[in-house]
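Tutorial, part two.
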Amino acid sequence: MSAAEPKLRAVPRAGLERRIRALNPWFHNMQLDGIWTAPDHFLGDYPGAKFRRFAGRLPTDLTGKSVLDIGCNAGFYSIEMKRRGAARVLGIDSDERYLAQAELASEALGFGDIEFARLDVYDVAAIGERFDLVIFMGVLYHLRHPLLALDLIREHVASDLLLFQSMQRGSKNVLHVEPDYPFTATDHFFEASYPKLHFLEQEYCSDWTNWWVPNRACTEAMLRSAGFSIESRIEEEVYLCRVTARPFAKHGPAVVYPASGRAND
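Running the prediction step on this input gives:
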């Protein structure tokens, strides 16, 4: 059996549906032994259908590699990376119900050696190690301090690749931005394709946890600013990035934020 092959499923079919429904609602709609976790999901087969659009652009063999899945939700991406042979996968989330879903899904699919821990993205320094691949999908726009989160990921846990996604709104064009502008230059701020981060004071999509939504130019600028080079945009809102030198690093650290707690607390 290769590292990418699941072990025999440990969860008996009888009672599985009951355990799934006890953890409702699910945002990750996965099929566990023929049972969909969110059969009425408004996006259908999500995130599976989305993942299939860019799966071929990711490394197919992660043998010996470590993966950190930040905001893992029910563990879909953690499981997919384990399928590719990753030696260690750690999924973190601040929501206990999502973590319980992830534990059940990984167990039912035969990947019970995936680790899950309750931890906030702002506290990733507490993990105390770097990972070959960091997944940061569908989290940025739920954060009140999104650039801080990217800085912390770059500073403490990313050693090579970053798989990143954020909801985007506004222009999909990317304006060429000069390295500097005089104080009197203001026209570029009115361009729709200038990097813009839209603040949501009220709810969006009936979700009060949506705080900031970037346009495409802002998404890419924030990644570069945090010290990630964009290898490619592999799907409409999905980027494969690599750790690189942080702009203005000569002036000092990008972020000072103390570690608090421990990953397994």
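Confidence is low (pLDDT under 50) at residues 261-265. In part three we will examine how such features are distributed along the chain.
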